[in-house]
Amino acid sequence: MERWEIVLVGAGAAGLMAAWRAARELGTGKVLLLEGNGKPGKKLLATGNGRCNLTNLGAEPCRYHGDRDLAAPLLAQYPPARVLEAFRAMGLVCREDGEGRVYPYNFQAAAVLQALWTACQEAGVQARWDSPVTGVRREKGGFLLETAGGEKLLARQCLLCAGGKASPKHSKGEGYSLAEGLGHRVTALRPSLAPLKSPAKCLRSLKGMRARAKAGLYRRGRLVWEESGEVQFGDGALSGICVFDLSARLEGPGPWEVRLDLAEDWEEAQVLGYLKDLRRQHPHRRAGDLLAGFLNLRVGWELVKLSGLAGDLPLAQIGDRQLEAAARLIKSWAFPVTGPGPWESAQVTRGGVPLGEVDLETMESRRCPGLYLTGELLNVDGDCGGFNLHWAWATGLAAGAAAARRAKEGPSC
Predict the structure, then answer these.
(1) For the packed helices 109-123 and 80-90, what is the interaxial angle rounded to 10 degrees?
(2) Nearest Cα to Cα of residue 231 among 205, 254, 251, 261
């Protein structure tokens, strides 16, 4: 039976970073990386629309959810500067976009993956693709791992870096069952950073349209969070980065609602004044064109209908109350929300192994010594903008360094 000092399950962001950090200390023949897909970093290649927003200079606990208070010490220990130092050591140059988001200098996610995997190879990491791990069992002196191909390996230490359930074409969440089998709890899992489902009838006709707005998430009529950005209308859902961030804040029973302010720089009185001026200056213009000079054309037409106006009616025949209704809709267009979209449309997983079950300095399990957990397997998820990848890098660095230290202190397999 093969024996290894460290075996890592999963070659995503956290797994590659942890493998590099461990092998850098231990050298060739000590660290094995097992990946169920045919190649490493498939999800990493898709991040940031292929540009890879790999961290954020504002990576503070307030931008995370779940056990974020417990995560604070680790985030302080591995700030963005330390993560970027690691990438620079691999030869990757990065740049910041002026709003805190950090990208590879060439804006290619493939460059990030190449830097990681090349650095792993140089450090002596061994890897096997198409090797999904189906079981991990605690054994005397380490862990027995079994793969779908029937391989059995003995590792003195095991790092679970298998990712979450979001985007199941990249990972399906097998790591959660492996963690449970080794004594860990897993909190309820749900999609996060996902579109928000809504039964609003107007969404079907608005499919494919986009509009700049301030989007506010309301629970039982009270504002929970609001964020500005481009909102995308889909058949049965709202999406866009600002909506994704709202989805991360769906906590507790509803009813939930998203309200869109399509004129966030104007007061409602200013909007109404504009509409009245338009009526006065263009009395023969069709009501259907009331908002054509102000909003996305199809979005404007839909709002005219929702205001109860006949599209062919001349503006001169529209009363003040109807214009007031249109102004209110522009400033607060409400969409009932029934929950986040499916796993296929989500970027990250909400929930996971509680942080209280791991040592936050090392990411080592408190329930199973020699086991380490990283990234999306843990009950921490971040906003859009590089926060989730930063968590993957930070936990990977911490776990890889700790496993290497432990390897040096004791006998190898």
Answers:
(1) 70
(2) 261
Helix (H) or strand (E) run with residue 297 in it: helix 297-306
At residue 186, the pLDDT reads 98
User: 232 has which bridge partners?
Assistant: 210, 239
Question: Is this structure's pTM higher than 0.85?
Answer: yes
What is the pLDDT confidence band of residue 411, given thresholds at 50, 70 and 90? low
| 233 touches 245 (CB < 8 A) | no
- Name, in order, each residue with C-beta under 8 angstroms of 264's C-beta and a sequence gap of 6 or more: 213, 214, 228
At 413 the pLDDT is: 47
> What is the per-residue DSSP string for 71-106?
HHHHHHHS-HHHHHHHHHHHT--EEE-SSSEEEETT
219: how many CB neighbours lie within 10 A of its CB? Answer: 18
The answer to whether residue 84 scores a pLDDT higher than 90 is: yes
Give, as one character, the DSSP assignment of residue 386: T
Q: What is each CA distance from 289 to 204, 209, 295, 301, 370, in whole angstroms?
A: 21, 17, 10, 7, 67
Maximum Cα interatomic distance, the chain, rounded to a whole number of Å? 88
For residue 61, give Cα distances in angstroms to 131, 348, 368. Answer: 35, 17, 27
CA distances from 331 to 211, 216, 258, 326 (A): 13, 11, 12, 9
pLDDT in tens, 180-214: 999 999 999 999 999 999 999 999 999 999 999 99
Pairwise CA distance, residues 389 & 409, whole Å = 30
Q: How far apart are CA 117 and CA 115, in angstroms?
A: 6
pLDDT band at 47 (very low <50, low <70, confident <90, very high): confident
**Can you state the percent helix, strand and coil of the chain, rounding each to 5?**
40, 25, 35
Q: What digits encode the pLDDT tens for the residues 220-234? A: 999 999 999 999 999
Strands 94-96 and 64-66: unpaired
Segment 38-65 mean pLDDT: 93
Compute the distance between CA of residue 189 and CA of residue 183 in angstroms, rounded to an integer: 18
**How many C-beta neighbours within 10 Å does residue 363 have?**
30
Radius of gyration of the chain (CA): 25
User: Angle CA(131)–CA(167)–CA(38) in degrees, nearest 5?
Assistant: 25
* Burial of residue 266 (number of CB atoms within 10 Å: 0-12, 13-18, 19+): middle
Looking at 315-379, which runs of residues are DSSP E strands? 333-337, 339-340, 348-350, 371-373
- Mean pLDDT, the chain, whole residue set: 95
